[in-house]
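Quick start: read one record
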Amino acid sequence: MKPVRVGLVGLGTVGTGTVKVLLRNADEISRRAGRQIIPTIAAVKDTSKKRDIGNADLIITADPMEVANHPDIDVIVELMGGTELANQIIMKAIENGKHIVSANKALIAIHGNEIFSAAHSNNVIVAFEAAVAGGIPVIKAIREGLAANRIEWLAGIINGTGNFILTSMESLQSNFGDVLTQAQELGYAEADPTFDVEGIDAAHKLTILASIAFGIPLQFDKVYTEGITQLNYDDIVNADDLGYRIKHLGLAKRTTSGIELRVHPTLIPKQRLIANVNGVMNAIMVHGDAVGSSMYYGPGAGSEPTASSVVADLIDVVRTFTTDHENRVPHLAFQPDRLSDIPILPISEIQCAYYLNMKAANKPGVLADVTRILGDQGISIEAIEQKRTDTDTQLADVIILTNKTKEAFMLDALDQLNQLPSVVDQIKRIRVEYFN
């Protein structure tokens, strides 16, 4: 049977891993797919650079459009990153009738709706398992394995850099800036870590997961995003004393009013499995009405872990060559004409519990003012603790854990609390999730 020829756009860490896996496991892959899968051409920025691709017989080009237009290529593997140029290449390849495998979460989150529409019209597949959580097959799990379920919520540690930083802050008893420097030295964080530490990378991935879970169009611009740069070691200690760990979490929840989509630091009870996911590892919890809660854990990045998902997508694409496109698994799990227009809620409408950390004057009546303001907003207190008092300034650290309330009520309360003469500096607020 005619082999399937693959063109790669990008031959960096994941690209070289993909070629190595395809070569090393060629016989096994062929037995699974039903045909040989042969990497044939790759587009790179620097054609003079040596790459660790073993004995692969690859044509190397500096022009990615040469790959998209190559008459002998059946499947394009897009691993270049970025959005605009990648989108142009993908759309051209689709126009040429080529199937697509991509690990580009930003591309799918921002341009996925138009890409999937074009793919459906041209009877080709776009596979993107590697775009979320590296080597963890979570997209397939939600889209296919949990297809019988009404998904109620999902929550994920889906950025390894942020998780490494928070884990190191705890283990090294250090603040954010010191640990970030170490992460950069070890290669876990970029020189400009904004996408990771501000939650943008996680928001791209959450956009994709939520669309598959709830059958809604991709809507990256509606994800609320908050980073971890303001956290310090004291927050880690305070959370631990209360029985929690802080994780940078992506959450998507179905409510009666709409869908919550948010990325932010979150206090999680220490006994929850996801609270014990450390280092650069990723984990995603999914709650379905039939199965209950399940968790998917593993490496969220890396050359061969991500290549594992890329090659699995290639195998899936090849398996469907003899299947008409009406009977394939839909890109976003639900049939394209059955996606829901359920609204994405603004952050002010979400409901959760809160951790508050304030520095206040250690004198009579201060806590009474604080509890009165919270009470006026209908916010009840789960726990309150005065941690310590600075003998020079007579300022105390006050930690409050609230019960569940609407974010709008909490924002109003924080505005009033920050105006109290007895409260110094801005009050730190971190959301709390129990996953009950």
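Residues 138-299 form a domain with the Dihydrodipicolinate Reductase; domain 2 fold (CATH 3.30.360.10).
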